[in-house]
Amino acid sequence: MSQNISETAETPKALSENLAKEYSATEKVPHSEARNMTFIDMFATWIGANANNGTWYIGGVVAGCSFGGALAVTLIANPIAYLFMALVGYMGYKAGTSTMALTRPAFGVRGSSLPTLVNLTSFIGWTAVNTFIAAISISFLLKDSLGWAAFGEKNSAKSMIVGILIMSVLHLASISLGHRSVKMIERIGMILVAVLGIWETIVVLQNVSLSQIIHWRPTASLSLPFGTAVDTMAAFSLAWVTAIAEFTRYTKKKTSATVAPMLGANIGLFWFAFVGIIATIAAAITSGTYDPNNSDPSTIASKLGLGWLALIVIVITSTTANAINLMAAGISLTNLTKKVKAMSALWIVTVFAVLLTFVPLLFGSFLDSFIAFLDYLGMVLGPLIGIMVTDFFLVKKRVYEVPEFERVEGKYWFSGGIHWGAFIAWASGVIVYLLIHNLPFFTASIGATYPALILSGVIYWILSSFRK
């Protein structure tokens, strides 16, 4: 009780500092006015995170399962992922720290550095992916206004480079005030997303009937196995799980930390994946060719004649998603070193993401790079999340002692700062993923991501029981 009183009885100066402060990874956000993310804020944030060009693109990719298969994949893979997101969201709400700080009780004070590096590269990678897709939209706008070559055409590098630089400026603005600027952007983005989603759904169904879309089938060579599609969708959605506590640590109520993001994420993803699925299939029907390489929203919008307004909103929704990516990457950096403050870390990761965005220009297929990236995420993040949830809810019984997160020779120090049991469980999950990922049973049914996640959690729970 005394702790709660001391946290809420703040001086006006302390209150002002808490409201303006961006907390580093292991700093606990006090239960005070600093916790200023409401249910609506969290709902809007996770709609904005998922209703964007990346989700449209992933919808176009899984359209290779046909309409019914793609819809089933979306309705199965994503709710499972967002259930885990709600669980980790609760962990962030309860402890008041970032997601990567929450890996310390499982992996050790020093051991948490490796999952943090994985998370850091993941979100910088996601920023680059979304930026590249948004730059494609800008290249089409530059073609209409200046006559420059658009993406996919000869000599399009100039328009893509300009597009990447424009997106980078927008990203810097989106994280300029930390979670506060993200909150403002997501509220605006939610309105734009609603307008775009309704409009584009209507336009697509005016061009091609729903019956045609339902009965369309890809050629055998481009057909996507159901289990492979589950892995693709699962990796896409699980990537958000390791960003959730960066925001739920600023919530005052459990429902804001669990129900709101889970609802927002599911609605946002299903809506825009649905738009991506029907738009890509509609483009395939009208053109006579299905090519998942061209399932990005800008190319589809151009084929369907949606106009410049669609391209502009695609750019804006990319900014709403990347604001969250950059927040997660920046705060992850502060879990590696305390020498970098939270706001400085946000600027650093933004610059790195800009540089990484140019990499796809060097390769012939953006789709190949994207799928390889998702395979990597499913392989490493699934087992990591399984261990985190198992540790908090089953091993530690929902109690983490935040002051111990940094203490040498403390409760979470284990052996030299590393809990080797967690790494054995993590490696086991990765190995299982690699072994079953391409087996016919798993590619045709449940995929490899969720089995690897569950197995890693079970192995961790067994190994942890021996320590008692």
From TrEMBL:
- The transmembrane residues are 70-93, 114-140, 160-178, 190-214, 226-247, 259-285, 305-333, 345-367, 373-395, 416-436, 442-463
**Pfam families documented for this protein:** Transp_cyt_pur (PF02133)
Gene Ontology CC entries for this record: plasma membrane
Q: Does the keyword RNA-binding apply?
A: no
Which keywords label this protein?
A: Membrane, Transmembrane, Transmembrane helix, Transport
| Cleaved signal peptide residues | none
Q: Where in the cell is it found?
A: Membrane
Q: Which GO terms describe its molecular function?
A: cytosine transmembrane transporter activity
Membrane topology label: Multi-pass membrane protein
The record's annotation in Gene3D superfamilies points to:
Hydantoin permease (1.10.4160.10)
Q: Which InterPro entries match?
A: CodB, Pur-cyt_permease, Pur-cyt_permease_Fcy2/21/22
* Family statement drawn from the similarity comment of this UniProt entry: Belongs to the purine-cytosine permease (2.A.39) family.
Report what the protein is called: NCS1 nucleoside transporter family
The beginning of the lineage is: Bacteria, Bacillati, Bacillota, Bacilli, Bacillales
